[in-house]
Amino acid sequence: MIRVLLFARIADLAKTREAEFECAEEGIALNELTKQVVARFPALEASLAQPRLLFLAINQEQAWLDDQVKDGDEVAIMPPFSGG
Amino acid sequence: MIRVLLFARIADLAKTREAEFECAEEGIALNELTKQVVARFPALEASLAQPRLLFLAINQEQAWLDDQVKDGDEVAIMPPFSGG
Amino acid sequence: MTKAVRIQTEDFSVEEETKLLHGGNGGMGGIVTFLGTARDFSKGKDVSRLEFEEYAGMAEKAMNSLRDTAMEEFDIIDMRIIHRIGTIQAGEQIVLILAGSAHRGAAFDACEWCIDTLKKTVPIWKKEITPSGESWVEEHP
Amino acid sequence: MTKAVRIQTEDFSVEEETKLLHGGNGGMGGIVTFLGTARDFSKGKDVSRLEFEEYAGMAEKAMNSLRDTAMEEFDIIDMRIIHRIGTIQAGEQIVLILAGSAHRGAAFDACEWCIDTLKKTVPIWKKEITPSGESWVEEHP
Q1: Residue in C54, C95, C141 nearest the CB of A84
Q2: Model's pTM, two decimal places?
Q3: Which subunits sit against D, judged by 3+ Cβ pairs under 8 A?
């Protein structure tokens, strides 16, 4: 199981802040996982089509689309930050 | 009468913070006044010999050695500032 | 409540944080503080309140690493970073960064670098609530 | 006691001055503060206390003109400058400068310019009292 966390505008569009996805034993590229996320939440299609406007993390560390996600990982899909 | 105010190290050397000097009707160049100050307070000779290390003011406005002092003016002879 | 890096819903005291930073450190000659407050107007619209959301865990980790980097890169003695989340009314305090050093230049540089970098690297998001609706702010693509 | 530019013997409150600067000004999004404190060590010597002397009248005038210039030259909404004189023990507060603006860059620039320029242009002098004697500080010829 991979736990996917969504934040701010991305969470609003998906109408959820969290979702779980099956994970093959060999893991899955982050790029593939985001396609599954779009398949489940079509409202995210436009946002996830522009990944350079997103910040991705695996287990709370910044990650990129070609990084590999393993079973049990926590993945975060985040819009640009606006703290401060 | 010209009122001369001395500050910090300059006042310590002169052992006074204030002195009065006679003033001719036509006034006096600040340069001449500082000579009279040295004559009365010889301990200031070395300090006043290096006027670029001093800050001078007439009536609380920055002044230079060739500025003219009038009767009734307040003149300040100040070492480099160290506030803040 | 006295950790040097915190994310919290409650307000903070500038005075208290300043005293905690100074902490009787006799070598500290200058403290530079940045305090961010909620403006009541943004991009032509009245803003009645803000709502801040964080990625719990990662946001605090990012702020801690910000402080670690600042302590290494700048000649400062100590730094504190406090960010509020949740609902913040116009006029209220949002974020506080304090940098203390022997000489003031390093504290100015560290403090400004810290708020600039916080905005780009800490997973916190701001929503503006205006009379005409709500919108997430996304200024740093 | 609430004038924006003051020279005083008594201590000041960072919190109070911050509130006075903000003053419910809804357009102020960032406040940058410089707080100077008395170090207990200077140029290899322990310093037990400082004594500050001013040119009464001219010092406050110079600080007011500093504030006027900063308000003209930088895109800030307000500024406050408070300097203590008299005896200040090691660790105590000496000077406080606050700059408030809509966007933080101007407040950082104005605050740093103000303390740099204050040191050069305001007739205030500092004497350091160490175990081995007293000496006037003259760093800006």
Answers
A1: C95
A2: 0.95
A3: B, C
